[in-house]
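Table S2 (text version). Query chain:
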Amino acid sequence: MNRIIWGVLLGFSVVVYPLDLTLNTQLDEKLDQISKKEQSQTLFKFNVLRSIEIKGLNQISEDIVRNELMVFKGDILNPYVVSRNLKRIKAIGYFDDVESQLIDFEGGKKWVITVKENPIVNQIVIKGNDSINSDVIIDQVETSGGEVFNFGTIRTDILNIEDHYKSEGFLFTKVSKVDLPTYQDPTLVFYVEESQFDSIDVSGNTKTKDYVILREIDIKTGDKVNEVELKKNLGRVFNLNYFSEVVPDLMPSPATKNAYDLLINVKEKSTDSINVGGGWGQQNGGFLYSDLNINNFLGTGQLIALRGQWGGRVQTYQFKYFNPWMFGERRSLTYRAWNTKGSFGFNNMLSSGYRPETRYGMDVAVGLPHSYELRSTHKAKIENVYVSETDSTRSYSIQSYAYSLSYDTRDIKFSPLNGVYHFVTIENGFKLKSNALQFTRYDASFSNFFQTAEKQTIATRLMIGKINGNIEMTEYYYIGGPNTVRGYIEYPYSFGFGRAQLLGNVEYRFLLSDIIQFLFFVDAGWASSMGSDFTKGKVGKGVGFRINSPLGPIRIDFGIDELGEMRTHFNIGHIF
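Corresponding structure-token output:
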């Protein structure tokens, strides 16, 4: 019995004891809350913001500073609030130093903020800029002379300068250093570090000589790295038509700071061909031909071409030699010779302008560059023409000099998407022999290419011609056929001929692949000796294909005349 009583008493004692501890803890917490409330009331009483005063402003408006403050009259000030707002004032960027002081004021606190303004920028200087004028660069920065310097805009100014260089095609250019204005020297100086080319080399060419590639590159060691200029120079290499790929590699130079080594990787394609074949002409019947084209002879960039054709009432032999750098930098030499005999002949390399005559001759042309796009050509020509073997009085000769001026901005010369090709020619025939023709011939051609999609372009050509003086009919302009207005029969059955011509062509070209093109075309032409008799003009339309070959694009056109009759034209090379 006693054990039970003591157990109960002992158990009661154990239970009561922890209840006493809990009550004591709650009492302590209550007293602590009362203490904090009293402290808060005391803090509220003595740290309430009563006024804000800003000192040290001269150029900067007080509103700019106050707009950054996130504390107002009646708010309680504590170290965290003060620090946060001071940071916002410093972030404005106009101040070299910001100090703070709390003063007892009207039962609370006056917050006195003292600032020290940055120096006024007296001028902005750009150093190291060789490629872009300083005034142009200064226009890109937000900082202005005569204003208080702002730390917050300097990073934006640096980015603006670097972005402007990039927009102008300059790669890897950076602002390497900035001298900030001080009270002793209030000049803001940006140091620009433009990247440059170090070594320039080629790779991948097994046949083509290095110098043939490098001479097309205007970029030299020390020139600035510019994407626009690099693409332009690589386009010149591609336009040699010796390579299927031209890919650049830019690698940091181990020898020079912020310089890059340029490696031009090329992939050569076949440039020589021997072709033997035959065909059937609408006017001449069946024929055989043989061609030998050596483009890039021995890897030196020279061209040698031979052609022979027999049958179809025509027998012709032609030779052509071309050296694009015969007399130094892009000073070219072209020599051609031909001998054609038959009822229908032609005097231009790979041309299909057939004429009932026998002729042989040659011409020599020297091309001179005025820029990469602008060239002039001086050509001397000697040719003897026999219109009839039985009547020598109908024979004549041509001894002429022609001056041509051409402007060429085509991106890819043999299959352009963009650019123009314009040229004008004046040819004058001299009376050096008794049967020589004495004449002056004026020709102008304007071809334009407008890219409409990634592999689509609109190609246009306008040709104007006029001949004055003593001229034979075989030298007239003839309109109709594969090179003028498609869908019509060519010379001598052309619908228009005479001493003047006007010709227009429009093609919408689709580059289906690197080998095949498809196009729609519309041609319109007029030729006459009557001056303005435009009623003789005709319009042709149709579709065509171009198949790339070593000789050039093989051209197949299906032209429809005004009566709806379709004719097929087969030739080599674009019509323009």
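Notes on Table S2: The chain has a mean pLDDT of 86. Residues 46 and 108 are 5 Å apart (CA to CA).
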